[in-house]
Amino acid sequence: MISKRKFFAFFLNRFNKRALLLVIDAVFLLTHLFYLFFFLLNDITEMFVFNIFSVSFYALLEFFIYKNPDPITRYASLAIVEVTLHAGAATIFMGWEAGFILFIVCCGPFPFFLPFKRKAVPFVLDVLFALEFILLRVYTVNKGGVVYTDISSRTVTGIFIFNTFMSFLLIAFFSSVNNYLKRIERQKMKDKNEELSMLIKIDPLSQLFNRRAMVDFLKRMDSSAKERGEWYVIGMGDLDNFKHVNDTYGHASGDMVITTVSKIMTEAVPSEGYVCRWGGEELLFAVPGADTEQGRQIAERIRNQLKRYVFTTEEGEQFSVTITLGVCACRGAFSYERCVSIADQFLYYGKEQGRNRVITENEFPLESLK
């Protein structure tokens, strides 16, 4: 059996606002077509004419919704007015027992679902609905003002059952629509918040995670590794002679280098890993479930791809850039902060050894570790 959540997801995926409003309007249109033929067959001429206008109204509304679905409040308000007028007129012509009066009761909650600019509007409308209800009761029951009194009790009972069913269906339908619209708004708010959250976490130039976001990932990765007794690897990279690039070719070229190396690192690091701009020309990657040798292979891919890349300035000048990386594997013996610190020491040892290289514990004099 399909779950409620899956059904709602199915519904959301297939209905946008325009389609939803068109379906609602089509239900009203078909209902009034039924009334059109009902009143015609029972020789209630006035309501037959009324329903010609009602059917035309909903057909025209279908057209306007298709063209522009945005003014929901306007469309819904017009529909509520039509329903209450239709229910009042039908009650006058057929009597209280026919059940058309139920539609006026049903309309009571709907104004509160709509985003009116003036908060008093739903209350005013409900007062008007209540007055209409009371006046119809007085006119049709107490004063016997029903126009068509010769309609068979079987016909009256039949239309009462139909109107009762449609009234409850109307309440259920619009309550579902209200929930649907609320969920849409909540989802939009959630998406917006996630978008804002991502903007806070993303470095605008490199489009990588920034240091703040990376620290969160490292904390989770470190905690998970300690629980499972697994390795993870951290690689710290720093562009060689980056100041020379900015001074010689300009900051636009420097930005181009940062953007390019960010793409290279993103492509080299496995999908389960993370890449961030740690600060300035420093970039960091972290991969769960990886050891020193796997970390070295990733770092070498980054180094070799960048070394082969030829940059071209707007003036047509060409240059190359290299990167030095320090790679440290961790397995719960110390914190991620210590792992980052060790990778950083490996990195600067690589700088001292001539740059453009990858340094792990195998190349680093461990007695020099701080």
What would you say this structure looks like, in words?
- The protein has 370 residues and is α+β, with helices and mostly antiparallel strands.
- It has two domains: 4-198, no CATH class; 211-368, Alpha-Beta Plaits (2-Layer Sandwich), CATH 3.30.70.
- The chain has helices spanning 4-14, 17-41, 45-67, 72-94, 101-107, 121-142, 153-201, 211-228, 242-249, 251-268, 292-308, 336-352; strands at 232-239, 274-279, 282-288, 311-312, 318-319, 323-330, 358-359.
- The strands form two sheets. It has a five-stranded mixed β-sheet, sandwiched between helices. Strands 4-5 form a two-stranded antiparallel ribbon.
- Helix 3 packs antiparallel against helix 4, helix 4 packs antiparallel against helix 5 and helix 5 (101-107) packs antiparallel against helix 6 (121-142).
- The longest helix has 49 residues, at 153-201.
- It is elongated, with a radius of gyration of 36 Å.
Approximately how much beta-strand content do the residues carry?
A: 5-15%
Derived structural class: alpha+beta
Rg value: 36 Å
- Classify the helix fraction into a percent range: 55-70%
Q: What do the pLDDT scores average to? A: 86
Q: Residue ranges: pLDDT <50 for 5 or more in a row? A: 1-14
Cα distance spanning the termini: 61 Å
Sheet with the most strands?
5 strands, mixed
Shape: elongated
Got a strand count?
A: 7
Tally of individual helices: 12
Give the H and E element order.
HHHHHHHHEHHEEHEEEHE
Strand order of the largest sheet: 2-3-1-6-7
Number of domains: 2
